[in-house]
Amino acid sequence: METLSQLQPKINWRWALIGALFGFFVLHPGAMFTARLMFQSQHFPNDTFNEIIISEMRKAFSIQMLPWSLSFAIISAIAGAFYRRSQQIAAELRKSEQKFRELSITDDLTRLYNSRHFYHQIKREIERTNRYEHPLSLLIIDLDNFKKYNDAFGHIVGDRVLAKAGEILRNSLRKTDTAYRYGGEEFAVLLPETKGEEALHFAERIRQAFENKDLTLQKEQNFSVTVSIGVAQYESGEELNTFIKRTDTNMYAAKNKGKNRIKFS
Fold first, then answer.
1. In terms of DSSP bridges, do strands 214-218 and 227-233 run parallel, antiparallel, or are they unpaired?
2. What is the distance in angstroms between the CA of the first residue and the CA of the last residue of the chain?
3. What is the CATH T-level fold of the domain 115-264, as seen in this structure?
4. For the segment 24-70, what is each residue's pLDDT rounded down to a tens digit?
5. Is the N end or the C end of the chain the one with fewer CB atoms within 10 Å?
6. Strand bridging mode 227-233 / 262-264
7. 185 in active site
8. In angstroms, rounded to a whole number, what is the distance separating the alpha carbons of residues 265 and 263?
9. Which of these is catalytic: 56, 133, 167, 185?
10. Is the pTM of this model over 0.70?
């Protein structure tokens, strides 16, 4: 698939070539013929030789200038129309590219970013953290007893739980934060410019948001879904996989201690 940067020069050169060919083979010869008809020489018997020469020079000048001016005006109008259309096409391509990019990095069910984009972003954030020595924290969130919902109500209801989880996370984020569907029922939240203690308070808000949210899965069946959350702050020079594994280990420790809780270390 061609990108906008590859396709835009082709659009401009194509229309420029069409305009030039049309002007050279159609507009200019037509204007030359029109000028010839408009500036027929009219000489009188008593005209002097100098007057005839001046008249012929005016005619020649007019024949040359009129077609060029007419051709330039018409070609400019055509080129303007073509340029406007090429700009419209470019704008449509930009919108399509943006939409395609958003679809390629977004999980359809939860409307959060997908795991592929998570690894891309966390690498960038770690590089920025190491360069500027700013804090970075990570949350890994797992839905408690999710298998129970799937077994009891079926995968359709399980998908509704996941969609609601995505909604709760989106509503909990600050402007600088990003949330991802990390695995089946696991989610990750990147918290730039956030120390571990601050991330712990943020995680508690998320835990309470899940605990206090009533989910209507079927008629007359309302219940809440709890989460276990692992929290970790990035340590300078730490490997990416080590950072993620440390956060993941905290999440499993929270589960093993009874679920619906947070582990930070």
1. unpaired
2. 46
3. Alpha-Beta Plaits (3.30.70)
4. 555 556 555 555 555 555 545 555 655 555 665 555 555 555 555 55
5. N
6. parallel
7. yes
8. 7
9. 185
10. no
